[in-house]
Amino acid sequence: MISLQLGRMSPAEAQRMLEFDREHIWHPYSPMPASAPVQPVVSADGVRLTLADGTELIDGMSSWWAAVHGYNHPKLNAAVTGQLGKMAHVMFGGLTHPPAVRLAERLVEITPEPLTKVFFADSGSVAVEVAIKMALQYWRSKGRPERHRLLTVRGGYHGDTFGDMAVCDPVNGMHHIFNDVLARHVFAPPPPLGYTTEPDQAYLDELSRLAAEHADELAGIIVEPVVQGAGGMRFYAPEYLDALRGIADEHGLLLILDEIATGFGRTGELWGCDHAEVVPDIMCLGKAMTGGYLTMAATLCTDRVAHGITSGEAGVLMHGPTYMANPLAAAVASASIDLLLSRDWRSEVDTVEAILTSELHGAADLPGVADVRVLGAIGVVEAREPVDVPSVQEIAMAHGVWLRPFGTLIYTMPPYICTDDEVHHIADALYAIAESL
Question: Is 62 flagged in the annotation as binding?
């Protein structure tokens, strides 16, 4: 058995844990047994992870973009422990509870006005599944079951479950090996790269052409607003999002915005759609919603969508997870949202953006670098060739930073509470990696 004392482990205990882990435990997108080393984390506090040997690393990833307040935050700890003394979980079928109601009220309050109905899901992937199901069931309820496809763009990533995989990039995405068993949707080319670039009229025309050509079989449009996350860490101009809203309205399609990675301030606006002042019909939230404490997500929709679904043959939305609206997760999610909005989060994100922009500017001229881009609390160095992940992480750790690159992308999405010095450390690590390419 593994034992911990004072947040550290003996070398023998750490070695035994790592050996068992390697032979028996799957990690994300990893072989079995593992071919690359993993680092044993024994505690986390503030923005720092503590490894078994006592090494501290600044977490430049916010635990895959979720821990925006850092770790071991007293207000979030109190929310969990306070709710734990009342009930950790209760089924949501036929029952409700204060944490769920309070969180739903908060989400309706802070999301765009027409989004008034809330479905609580287990994870971001499930939230997207629910959004897709909403769109399909809406049209089935309207007597148009042939409207069962979605329009999306290449370069996107929406999750690992089957409905989600079908709307991820079908060629360069992580799920292309499943293409022969996935639903067939309609893909436009990826949006032209660059948040501040002038919109490409030819691209806008292609979006319009595809929507018109398939309008009778399309249920909706699904995209990540302004920032495409795990599909390529690409930033695109808000005008394209505005165009998609117009196209959806022209053909009566539902616009689904996947805000799981972009929501709660990550891009410099509270929601990615705020960059274009666009309002979706369905919105998916997750990741930062609970501050990285517990898995939970939400799918919000308008009254029109909700009433359309419930007026159909089923009379209900056909989904209901076992841990739906888990009270522990709902309590800490409300506390996380309150904590975010009680601080000047916008200034925090702007500071991260300013430091990363300044510190990484010169990296664009390095021979192994294809592009450098920064938006909000997101910094990306794109290499010309796929990087060796263990080697890159070794450089980052030598600078006291934890990063998790993939493909050609070395990037950071740090906690908003990082000090200026901590952001500089992260930028130094990214620059050192860029120099090594």
Answer: no
Quote the percentage of the chain above a pLDDT of 90. Answer: 91
pLDDT in tens, 217-226: 999 999 999 9
The pTM of the full predicted model, rounded to 2 decimals, is 0.95
Distance of CA 54 to the CA centre of its chain: 30
Q: Which of 287, 323, 411, 431 is catalytic?
A: 287
Report residue 2's pLDDT band, with 50, 70 and 90 as the boundaries.
very low
Residue reference for tokens 């948040």: 195
Catalytic site residue 365?
A: no
Instruction: Say if residue 334 carries a ligand binding annotation.
Output: no
Q: Does 258 count as an annotated binding residue?
A: yes
Catalytic: which of 59, 258, 274, 281? 258
E strand or H helix at 21, and its extent? helix 11-24
Strand partners for 71: 46
Provide the pLDDT for residue 30.
Answer: 87
**Catalytic: 133?**
no
| Class of residue 347 by CB neighbours under 10 A (exposed 0-12, middle 13-18, buried 19+) | exposed
From the candidates 59, 71, 117, 157, give the one annotated as an active-site residue: 157
pLDDT digits (tens, 9 = 90+) for 239-273: 999 999 999 999 999 999 999 999 999 999 999 99
Q: Which long-range contacts (CB under 8 A, 24 or more apart) does 88-95 make?
A: 88/326, 88/327, 88/328, 89/323, 89/326, 89/327, 89/328, 90/327, 91/322, 92/120, 92/320, 92/324, 92/325, 93/320
pLDDT above 70 for 346: yes
Find out whether 231 is annotated in a ligand binding site: no
Whether 258 sits among the annotated catalytic residues: the reply is yes
The alpha carbon torsion through 204, 207, 213, 219 (nearest 10 deg) reads: -140
